[in-house]
Amino acid sequence: MNRRSLIKNLGVTLGAAFIAPETIAKISDDTFSYEIIPNPNHKPMAKAVTAITLGAGNRGNVYGGFAAAFPDHLDIIGVAEPVQFRNDKYAKTHKIADENRFKTWEDVFARPKFADAIIITTPDNLHYAPCMKALEMGYDILLEKPIAPTEKECRAILALARKKGRIVAVCHVLRYAPYFVKMRELLAGGAIGEVMSVQHLEPIEHTHMAHSYVRGNWHNSKQTTPIILAKSCHDLDIIKWVIDKPCEEIIAMGDVKWFKLANAPAGSTDRCTDGCKVERECPYSAIKEYVERGGRNSVLDIPADTKDKKAMAMERLKTTNYGRCVYRMDNDQPDHYITSIRFKDGITANFSMEAFASYHGRRTRIFGSMGDMVGDMTELVITDFRTGKVTKLKPIAEDVEGYKNSGHGGGDWFLAKDFAQAVANQDPKMLTSTIDESIESHLMGFMAEKSRKTKKLTAVVV
């Protein structure tokens, strides 16, 4: 079958949905691979956008990774990071001059503006103040989600960004992932008729939950942000974005059911390294996770040239939260959370965030008047009620210019590329997640948490 016939037949299967011929390849009779058309608004860049990164942890290194791979797009010329090991590593990667290395974000702004943009990847409770200061000084901003810990602070950032005419790109990276981009295109094109309802699941994966939201930086909502924002504002945002309707009402339930002292096994101790009698059989053993499997141990800041990394990891577990018993932490983040939402025109959605899964990767089911759509971030399966035809679409597992999955289904680096273009051309329309576009899903999160605590239905007012 030639490409023209292939697209014609596929177009019939998917109704009026838009499929660009240059992006489709046939795998089998009912399965097709696809890639996303490059942003047509992109223009040749005369020079790279310069940026200063505030926070050289995991997310700072994700966007730093794009800059290292594409220095003609994004050039990181400064860093603020209080952990010396991370500061040194980041500075070495990006060849940052000593005078542009800082301990704190305040130190950066003690100097006159010396870059085009600020990348804010500090802890959640340190988003608001540096973002406001950066806006006042005329920087454009790449802002890691959540925007800020409170509704008032989110609205204040939005107001100042509008007043100053600056670009604030929120890192709702799923909007840039080919999987979700295609999902939105298909729904807008009528592939399943009129959308009626959505079911969306985020399985955090049990050891990820223990790592980030029981032991890790986000274990206490009062010190950071509620898990519905810290983890799942991505999900609220992507549900809203693919439906493309405003949210009207939301109700939520959830609690800490398992990770609490009442469930601590007999023989367990304050730390996994304290001679815990059940450590070998515990699925949340820090020794098994960080020492034996070596999973997620970048948080332990072990130098690359360390001869015995396992021994050093064991020592880190004796002094940090990552070695503490998951049943004896001061955590308050719900380990299961369900949210029901009503959007304009009577569209409903149910979202479930689950800690207790052996897998990760978002799952979505969308129900329409003429068909349904099921996906797991690796494949979209569309069934047409009128013909009974089943079509499968698989996103090509490459993202920016041939690089393999940078993260979030390729969305991390697609966002970084669009941000560099937006700043270089001073055109926020090159982004799909400016603060104007992203704030509604944050308000949904705040209202969901209010609902969970008050046990009442809440309205969302943008």
From TrEMBL:
Domain Gfo/Idh/MocA-like oxidoreductase N-terminal: 54-171
InterPro entries given in the database record: Gfo/Idh/MocA-like_OxRdtase_C (IPR004104), Gfo/Idh/MocA-like_OxRdtase_N (IPR000683), Gfo/Idh/MocA_Oxidoreductases (IPR051450), NAD(P)-bd_dom_sf (IPR036291)
Sequence ranges assigned to domain Gfo/Idh/MocA-like oxidoreductase C-terminal in this UniProt record: 184-383
One MF annotation (Gene Ontology) recorded for this entry: nucleotide binding
One Pfam family, short name: GFO_IDH_MocA_C
Protein name: Gfo/Idh/MocA family oxidoreductase
